[in-house]
Amino acid sequence: QKEVEQNSGPLSVPEGAIASLNCTYSDRGSQSFFWYRQYSGKSPELIMFIYSNGDKEDGRFTAQLNKASQYVSLLIRDSQPSDSATYLCAVNKQAAGNKLTFGGGTRVLVKP
Amino acid sequence: KAGVTQTPRYLIKTRGQQVTLSCSPISGHRSVSWYQQTPGQGLQFLFEYFSETQRNKGNFPGRFSGRQFSNSRSEMNVSTLELGDSALYLCASSRAGDTEAFFGQGTRLTVV
Predict the structure, then answer these.
(1) What are B93-96's contacts with CB under 8 Å, separation 24+?
(2) In the predicted structure, residue A11 carries a pLDDT above the cut 90
(3) Considering A97, B14, B80, B105, which has the largest number of Cβ atoms within 10 A of its Cβ?
(4) Is residue A95's pLDDT more than 70?
């Protein structure tokens, strides 16, 4: 079992719809959770982070964390063609410092 | 505010050679971590440096090493290059005490 798992996709979403991405992790000691967006040929860009159970909203993005069920999700509202990218879920088990474990990523395609 | 800067952007090396990659973090960031990204293995953590000390380490052979200077700039070195070392090498920086990490553009290493 991989430490961080994501559906590889592609997740095809009509423009203006909600894209829902899921991520599960295996280590209950995980402390912090991140979503990165990576366009083809580019480096990952941090779009959301969440540390506590519940929802966190930032613009069109909402991250949801459920530590009991060991999953974290990302909702993209009003999806735009520019949202077409690979979304990487990352988990940090460290209380201090950075040692991110990444999922394989979910490819999202937003169709006009 | 300048982002994370990695040099060089592209490198072609021959098997058996060694290579040094450089990373300048965001001003004020004291943590620098390094990752390898390949199509087969995804993004994998190499190591993290904080205040010139290696704070976390991934599961890579000893051919992969790094260091951090007093100005927080970091270098990673790969000795005795193998074909399988061909990858995108990414560095990420974060503030002391924070775990949100911001990536540079990466160095694309090709070993022939």
Answers:
(1) B93/B4, B93/B23, B93/B25, B93/B26, B93/B29, B93/B31, B93/B32, B93/B33, B94/A98, B94/B29, B94/B31, B94/B33, B95/B28, B95/B29, B95/B30, B95/B31, B96/B29, B96/B30, B96/B31, B96/B50, B96/B51
(2) yes
(3) A97
(4) no
